[in-house]
Amino acid sequence: MTHIAVTTWSLEQTAPTDLLPASTPEGDVRIVRSEVPSPEFSRFLYASVGGDIRWTDRLGWSHARWREHLERPGVETWVAYDRGTPAGYVELEAQDDGVVEIVYFGLIPAFRGRRIGGHLLSYGTARAWDLADRWPGLAPTKRVWLHTCSKDGEHAMDNYQRRGFKLFDTKVEEEAEVANPGPWPGAYAD
């Protein structure tokens, strides 16, 4: 089995004023919260956005595991639509002491390069900052963080930094190299 070195960068915002919003893209782009927990829809988004950049950690999740995750207080999925078609998503997860992680963020490959990503990240980050407003009992957000890695899209780090995220940790680890799973087996050839 071949191994590759993967660099993971962790970034954060520590105040809502850290957010530097992107401009709204032209056209009919809308961002909507997926309020009804749907393992099928969430798995579709996960596989469609991450299939070409080797997101594999949730591919083996059962329907019950997806549902359990999605029904947790403070877990939200915000979906960008371009003319009614899902274009990408951001998943938020409340953690202890007012911390919110942007667990997943990205666009389906056909929608990249259309200025939707910066807008979606801006919107999702703003929703991380006001997460407690929608979830009684959660502590107000004090910190929003995320991680990206060298397997992610070439513009990921730049987008995060342009939105006001600051680097706070870098790690390099060896990982087994896996084929791009695509949204379904055989969708992408390496």
UniProtKB/TrEMBL annotation:
A GO molecular function term, named singly, is: acyltransferase activity, transferring groups other than amino-acyl groups
Residue stretches making up the N-acetyltransferase domain: 29-190
Q: What SUPFAM superfamilies does the database record attribute to this sequence?
A: Acyl-CoA N-acyltransferases (Nat)
PROSITE patterns from the xrefs?
GNAT (PS51186)
Q: Know the name of this protein?
A: N-acetyltransferase
